């Protein structure tokens, strides 16, 4: 668990908001999608009367696409990025993909929470 926390702190070290950015970014992403698709474009799904239905549909797809794209991009370079760590500390190398997967799942869990918060605030039950 501390390895996942260290992964988050190094990932957001250059940001002034730090780890708080993990909560703000998905929340703003969901809010922007919902407001633009629902209010500005008035996009709707066939057979759905709720004006936020299309935005919810797209955000569900975005959630899984983000998880997939992040897992591919992180797994390509995971051993190269942690080369110095592997030279200095003796530990099972299989731990690195599990740490990356854990941090990706927590990050995407925050995106799911952001989706639920925004759509509850917008009146979609």
Q: Tally of extended strands?
A: 0
Strand content: under 5%
Whole-number mean pLDDT:
76
Helicity level, as a percent range?
over 70%
Distance between the termini: 34 Å
How many whole angstroms does the radius of gyration measure? 18 Å
The biggest beta sheet reads: none
Low-confidence stretches: none
Secondary-structure-based class equals: mainly alpha
Q: Count the DSSP helices.
A: 6
Question: Number of domains in the coordinates?
Answer: 1
Could you state the order of secondary-structure elements as H and E?
Answer: HHHHHH
Oligomer: single chain
Form type: elongated
Task: Report what the structure shows.
With 125 residues, the chain is an all-alpha fold. It has one domain (2-121). 73% of the residues lie in helices and 0% in strands. It has six helices and no strands. The protein has helices at 2-11, 21-40, 53-76, 78-81, 83-88, 95-121. The longest helix has 27 residues, at 95-121.
Keywords:
125 residues; mainly alpha
What can be said about this structure in brief?
With 125 residues, this protein is mainly alpha-helical.
Strand and helix layout:
Blueprint: H1 2-11, H2 21-40, H3 53-76, H4 78-81, H5 83-88, H6 95-121
């Amino acid at each position: 668990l501390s390895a996942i926390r260290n992964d988050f702190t190094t990932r957001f070290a250059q940001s002034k908001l730090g780890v708080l950015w993990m909560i703000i970014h998905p929340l703003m992403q969901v809010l922007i999608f919902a407001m633009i698709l629902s209010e500005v474009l008035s996009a709707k799904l066939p057979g759905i009367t709720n004006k936020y239905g299309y935005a919810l549909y797209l955000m569900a797809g975005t959630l899984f696409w983000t998880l997939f794209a992040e897992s591919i991009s992180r797994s390509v370079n995971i051993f190269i990025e942690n080369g110095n760590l592997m030279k200095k500390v003796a530990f099972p190398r299989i731990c690195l993909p599990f740490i990356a997967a854990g941090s990706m799942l927590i990050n995407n869990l925050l995106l799911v929470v952001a989706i639920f918060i925004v759509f509850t605030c917008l009146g979609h039950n």
